[in-house]
UniProtKB/TrEMBL annotation:
Entry superkingdom: Eukaryota
Taxonomic lineage: Eukaryota, Viridiplantae, Streptophyta, Embryophyta, Tracheophyta
InterPro entries: DUF1668_ORYSA
Protein name (database record): Uncharacterized protein
Amino acid sequence: FVPWLVHSPADEVDAYTVVRGSTIYVSSTTPGIGTYAFDTETWKWRHAGNWSLPFTGKAEYVPEFNL
């Protein structure tokens, strides 16, 4: 399975983040794309949903603030 990301220009990526240190979420607000998740342990992509992440750009977890 190869998500849209491989065949699209970089400007279609609106948001991205790493969750629990092993899953990378990549999102687009372009209609029909949604959000994909890449598991770095299994090297597999999955379509997370037809929604986009609720922010723009990169999001980082800040342990000191539990955010």
